[in-house]
Amino acid sequence: MAYKSPMLTLSGCIRGLVVPQDGRSLAVVDYSAIEARMLMWVAGQQDAVDDFHQGRDIYVEMARVIYKNRNLTAKDKEERQLGKQTILGCGYGMGHIKFQATCESYGIDLGEKTEYVERETKDKKREKIWYSPLAKRAVDGYRSRYPDVPAFWRSMQQGAESCVVTGKSNSTHGFTFKREREFLYLEMPSGRRLAYHRPNRDSEGLFYFTEDSQSYSYVKKRLYGGRIVENVIQALARDILAYGILNLEEKGFKVILTVHDENVVEIEDKEELAEIIKIMCTLPAWAKGCPISAEGFVAHRYRKG
User: Fold this and answer.
1) pLDDT in tens, 269-289
2) For 76-115, what is each residue's pLDDT tens digit?
3) Residue 99's domain spans which residues?
4) 53, 133, 138, 285: most buried by Cβ count inside 10 Å?
């Protein structure tokens, strides 16, 4: 009766069970929008990289494009929130229909749905899917404001298709596609490789086989530019996180937990927080110039920031 989702509430309570040893505290530090930052850097969208380096509010900049209003500021919270969702959600090729649904799941009101697209259902019937013009304006605004990002999607898709069809290796944006027996390998700037099993192409485009996260069965899955970019950006972000963990441990810090883009470190003095942030933002040679940033807090129990 007290909580909308009891199971989510209970699972949230698990965080508080993580505590430090007596006399110590927890430094909880996470990377700030690491995927968006890394995406702009890898895609070569230099103006966005400069915005991150110089501390500009890129969410407000995006909101100004969407609403065509250069006077918007961080005080315009609803507009900035949509700008933030656009920056964080549209980097991997999301269309306006899915963007509409994503915003709704986060409680973001895009206004009245006055436009629609018709699609065929599984039983061959036609249905109308309604959306707000603001959803399309946000997606289109992102792609026009940061054109190097969709160009990156296309380049990665072309590289994968060429390698699968011809079997010949090729490179783009610092990534190399290679075909070896049943796998399409994607070599990343960090030196690590991603693998796609049994890649091929049919009338609908590229595909590969992988384990379904829900049914755990081995299934056929589509492979396209946006998905490839999502894979490499998340993988590189993980490589940055792992590099930070190794550096922290080398400096004598005890990392007791890592969650997504966050490290939880046991400390004796709260003044150590600044050093932990500095260490986590130290980049490997391959990531030089990437506008990484981190922030955190000190607590006696693990919690969300």
Assistant:
1) 999 999 999 999 999 999 999
2) 999 999 999 999 999 999 999 999 999 999 999 999 999 8
3) 56-146
4) 138
Could you tell me the pTM of the whole model? 0.91
Q: Determine the 3-state secondary structure of 282 from DSSP.
A: coil
Q: Is residue 88 classed exposed, middle or buried when 0-12, 13-18 and 19+ CB atoms within 10 A define those classes?
A: middle
CA distances to 21, 31, 153, 172 from 182, rounded to whole Å, are 49, 36, 24, 22
48-79 burial: b if 16+ Cβ within 10 Å, else e: bbebbeeeeebbbbbbbbbbeeeebeeebeeb
- Which of 123, 146, 169 is the endpoint of a domain? 146
Decide if 228 contacts 171 (C-beta within 8 A). no
- Which of 193, 164, 161 lies closest to 176, judged by CA? 193
Q: Is residue 30 part of a domain?
A: no
Assess whether 142 and 196 both reside in one domain. Answer: no
pLDDT for res 12: 83
Which tokens is 236 given? 């590189």
196 in the same domain as 155: yes
Burial class (CB in 10 A: 0-12, 13-18, 19+), 203: exposed
Residues 192 and 133 in one domain: no
What's the CA gap between 182 and 70, in Å, rounded? 52
- Is the model's pLDDT at 122 over the cut of 80? no
270 and 298 Cβ atoms separated by less than 8 Å: yes
